[in-house]
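[09:14] KT: can someone run the structure on this one? pasting the chain below
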Amino acid sequence: MSGFEHHAAGNEARLSVPCRTSPEAGQRADALRRYLGAVATASVPGDMEFLDVARTLTREHLSAVPVVDAEQHVIGVVSESDLLAKAAVMAATHRPGPFGRLREHRLYEKSHGETAATLMTYPAVTVHPADPVADAAWTAARSRLKRLPVTDYRGRLVGVVTRADLLQTLVRDDTAIREEIETRILEEKYLPDPQAIEVTVDQGVVTVTGKVDVALAPRLLESIRAMEDVDKVVDHLTGIT
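[09:31] RB: done, structure tokens below
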């Protein structure tokens, strides 16, 4: 059963997230917005019919998808579990039973819905672009969610982050940090010849060696320091004019 069935657990997760303001914890506290650019945002409108929702999940290889209104506000999440219950009711010749547990009874009653809005679980457990990655990971882990809708302050969908996205972010090693510096900072932003700079990373400490234009060096170093995965930058650059 999808974690979106456990809304109460999701709320508990939000309230139980530990404070992560220490320097050590801050290494992986970058805001989610940094990681949303490459995340495809799939959603369905509330009036989409059952079969079309099922086709969307299959086509996009998703286990759940946010349901949005006309203004892109997230109003709930429809999952494979919601659709399976509906499909089972459609295929059954008699009511399965007994429904002793309240959750099973509610699932059966909800399975009579015909659209995403009547099949979905609501309200959705969401996170915000400014939330630290570590806090979003706690929310996903404690409430057992595979996918978290990311909404702006008005509740509008801006992205979706998965458990895999969060895990990859939290366990980034020195090699991944170096690769990001070499591609995102050196190649994309500053240097016509990135090979002129050597970057080494040891437990979050970045050492930068090589020759660089004196006008570029301060901005280059500041960009590296701004990476919250980086604890310290050791400057061995030689300025050239």
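[09:33] KT: thanks! The chain has two domains: 3-170, 174-240.
[09:34] RB: yep, looked fine to me
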